[in-house]
Amino acid sequence: MKKVLLLLSFYLLISFSPDKTFAQLYWGGSGSWTSAGWSTTNSGPYTSAWVSGSAVIFNVPASTITGATTTFSSITANEDVTVTSGGTINTGATIATITVANGKTLDFGSQAISTAAGTGFVKNGAGSLALAGGTYTGGFTLNSGTVILRGVNGMGSGGTLTINGGTIAGSGNRDLTGKYTSIIVGGNFTLGSSVSPASSSASLTFNAPISLGANDRIISLGANDTRLNGIISSTGGGLTIANSTGIVNELVIAGSNTYTGPTVIGVDSRLALAATEVIPNNSPITLNGGSIFTGQFNETYSTLRLTENSNIILSSSSVQSHNFSASNLIGWTAGKTLIINNWQGGYNSTSGTAGKIFFGNNASGLTAQQLSQIKFFNGTVNSDAVQLSTGEIVPTGTLPISLTSFTGKAVNQTILLNWNTASEVNNSYFDVLRSVDGKSFTAIGKINGSGNSNSAKDYSFVDENPYAGSNYYQLVQHDFDGKTSSSAIISADSKIAATQLSVYASSSEVKISISSPNQGKCLLQLFDIAGRKLAEQSVAVNKGFNSVVLPLSLQNGIHFVRYTTDGETINQKFVR
Question: Considering the entire predicted model, what is its pTM?
Answer without folding.
Answer: 0.75
